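Onboarding guide, step 5: your first structure request.
Type a short instruction followed by the sequence, for example:

Predict the 3D structure of this protein.
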Amino acid sequence: MFENFNFKTVSCYLEEYFIEQGMNVLVASYLNLFINITALVLLVLAINFLIRRFVIEAFQAFTNKTKTTFDDFLVKSKFPKYVGQIVPILLINYSAPYILINHPFLLKTVNLIMHIYVILLVIWIFRSLLRTTKNYLKTQEEYRDKPIDSYIQVVIIFVWIVGIMFIISELTGQSVVSFAISLGAASAILLLIFKDTILGFVASIQVSVNDIVRIGDWITFSKFGADGSVTEINLATVRVQNWDNTYTTIPTYSLIADSFQNWRGMQESPGRRIKRAIFIKQNSVKFVSSVELEELKKISLIAPYLNHRQKEIDKFNSGNQVNKDIPINGRNQTNLGIFRKYVDAYLHEHSAVHKEMYIIVRHLAPTPQGIPVEILCFSRDKRWENFEYISADIFDHIIAAVPYFHLQLFEAPSGDDIRMYLKTEQKD
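The system replies with structure tokens like these:
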């Protein structure tokens, strides 16, 4: 590039001219140095401006015409800007020995600064390429739920460590190999300094290999107050956007060290589980009389069941000559059993309940609060707001239906209940 251009002649021309004009040799030398450095700085700034003005804009115009987004991310990560600095560096590196030929200390200092700057520039270029790769992979469907940030951060840390080793080598004059060997002696201290980074790296690999958490998973981590979607997995932390749009950061290592709840199974399943119990007062459970049975047959959802079931019971009782003067003899229907059948029929008829998944209405062991009647089913719509609406709609109806079966729900007595009881006792 500069083969036919003699920098040595140009750099010394002014100095010789000043001496010919009768100026002191030392003053002429330093004045020539100042003018040459100023000219070089102006030339470097001009070249840098031209590169930014034309080369970078041309690169951006080129990326706008291409279909791939990789080059768009290159522009955003300042890759063209860093690459464009190579030309000014080459200019300084080539011209400095001629400009500073009579100033060896300054030449050594400039060479040292330029070598360090070249190392930093190489690191910046690598970092730009790595960030571009990270952002590009995040746009690909197969990599969206992978902890790419963790791997990129590890590579960037490694690049910085190697770069710092080269910088120290330049400053001390030792070779990189000897510096690396001496660094091995301080490995215990380094392990202590980078403990969290190492733990995070190991954790991010285990999270990825074992598929524990993906970006987009909904997790609940009570220890850290996290309850929402994972938006980012990097080397040190996992970022969670909670249901109220707040953010929680969790140490990556905690994902393998502590227990948390991942709702991915629910999100990937055909439906979302509804599991809740209502408590029935035990003293309200009884055998159903014939009069009450006829009244219950007016409920269309269970009318066919009651007719069929009662025929079986009557046939059994008459065949075995059961004395029905006492209801406990033989086979009978209970209001709780009919209620359970009604709830089951109601769930099978409900349009929001998934019919191909479990629908169970069952008793649990009696408690001091009464008999738990547990309803287990799955809603078709898994979205949280719709799920809550469906659950509320189902239990609104079930709770309102309880009195029609001459059953009572358990509820701890309030102050009004106690006052009414005391008033009743006083009247008696």
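Each response can be followed by summary notes, for example: The domain at 272-286+334-416 is CATH 3.30.70.100 (Alpha-Beta Plaits).
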